[in-house]
Amino acid sequence: MFFWAIPTHRGILLLLLAASSTAVAFVNSGLITAFTAASLDAIVLSGFVMVLFSCTGMKLARSVEDGICGEMLSVTFSLENRFFLFRQSCVILEKYPFVFSEKYAFASPALAPKEKCTFTVQIKAEKRGSFFLDKIYLVTGDPLGLFSKKKCFHQPVHIEIFPRDLAPDSLEAADKRGGIPDAEGRPLGHAGKGMEFFGVRPYRIGDEIRHIHWKSTATKGKLMVKEFEASAVDQIVILLDTDEKKISPEPCDNNLEFLIACANSINEFLSRKYCHLRFFSADGKDGLYHISGDASSVREKIRQALTLLRPSDTAFSTILAEAVENIPQRSIVYLLSMSEEKLAEYTGILAEQDCFCNLIYAPARNFPLIEPDKPRIVRRDKMPEKISELAEIARMADFTSGAEILEHR
Fold first, then answer.
1. Among 132, 145, 143, which residue's Cα sits nearest to residue 94?
2. Residue 404: which of 346, 336, 317 has the closest Cα?
3. What is the chain's mean pLDDT, rounded?
């Protein structure tokens, strides 16, 4: 796709000067005025003719791979001059939706006839998500800089910008509160919620009628119910708060992005462990997420969900209410929250289910709006009473930047 040549600021000035001198030459004909007008007209005309062919024979290609939010992304350009004349340095323009400034310009080297060059530029990915890149513009001009011309190259490609991985050294990923190991050191099952039959016990108030063992009831002369074996596989749960009303105004490094990075780090860490992982969150586009399965098998699904996750109008308490009904007993639960609303209530419910809760609390006040090129100063205000009542502060890998990390036992 070609665009007509357009004059630069310098070209507009020279065009006006050439037009004025030509008008003067017609009114006051003379050798000097005619020579001046002819010279200026020749310069303008030669510049226009040269810029018309400045993109002829030029071929531009771009290659880019998926990246990680907050890190540098490599973009490789390949520029080839297939013409028989030298080409001066030109400018490559492209829009990148994963950065806030979007437009980027890169200068290419001058090329000899039939020469091809490849160069790589670094761009910081500031937004996570799935993005589509297509048009690249090659901007050239004449040697005097009077005119410029654009040529558009279509290079369609989809790229993913994934959340950061904080790479914690260790996480609570196994139930360490007892359990009898077998001869090979693996934990034996115990009574609880599961699928495999464990045994029979007397009926207790609250037991479901469908679990009554009628044969034993007839034999014992009292109600007996079936018990099922709780899974010996560690159950890990991630609950992520995405309430848009609780997000700090900082566009790039806010508390939601921090919690998403924490969730991604936990997911990556657990994908190398033998455990069952559940992920609960709300998305502004697709509603509630509930992803469940073996940690290694659901790694990519959770990572993709975190990559595309958008702020929602769903309060964290709604996610907690939905998740509590689906969390097995003795699970290890990670609550990634931006608000203390109803946390004490639901943490108490989880404690009654013998769950081990880790709370990563990232309020908006810890992520204030900062000026570009200035380092972040993390604020650590006094925690609200509702939060401080839950547990004492504990350290957890590198997650302490801008968040208050708590454990509830």
1. 132
2. 336
3. 80
Q: Which range among 147-151, 195-199, 290-294 shows the weakest confidence by mean pLDDT? A: 195-199
Q: What is the pLDDT of residues 1-15, one digit of tens each?
A: 445 788 889 889 999
Spatial CB neighbours of 69, under 8 Å, sequence gap ≥ 6? 125, 126, 127, 128, 161, 162, 163, 164, 257, 261
How far, in Å, CA of 367 to CA of 260, rounded? 14
What tens digit of pLDDT does each residue of 219-235 get? 888 888 877 555 445 88
State the average pLDDT over residues 64-80: 92
The DSSP element (H or E) to which 51 belongs, if any, is helix 31-52
- Residues 258, 250: Cα–Cα separation, whole Å: 11
Neighbours of 149 (CB within 10 A): 21
Count Cα atoms within 13 angstroms, Cβ side, for 157: 14
Q: What is the pTM of this model?
A: 0.72
CA diameter of the chain? 130
Cα–Cα distance, 366 to 27 (Å, whole number): 74
Strands (E), 113-223: 116-124, 129-141, 147-162, 190-192, 196-202
Q: Which residues pair with 160 in a beta bridge?
A: 130
- Give the pair of three-digit tokens for residue 15: 């065009």
- Residue 357 half-sphere exposure toward CB, CA atoms < 13 A: 30
Beta-sheet strands, E only, within 142-286: 147-162, 190-192, 196-202, 224-230, 234-240, 275-283
3-state secondary structure of 249: coil
Chain segment 289-335, per-residue pLDDT in tens: 889 988 889 999 999 999 999 999 989 988 888 888 888 888 899 99
What is the 3-state composition of the chain as percent helix, strand, coil, each rounded to the nearest 5?
Answer: 25, 35, 40
Nearest CA-CA partner of 303 in 269, 255, 342, 253 = 269
Of 400, 174, 162, 169, the closest CA to residue 295 belongs to 174
What is the pairing mode between strands 72-81 and 147-162?
A: unpaired
Token couple for 63: 């290659």
CB 62 within 8 A of CB 76: yes
Question: Does residue 193 surpass a pLDDT of 50?
Answer: no
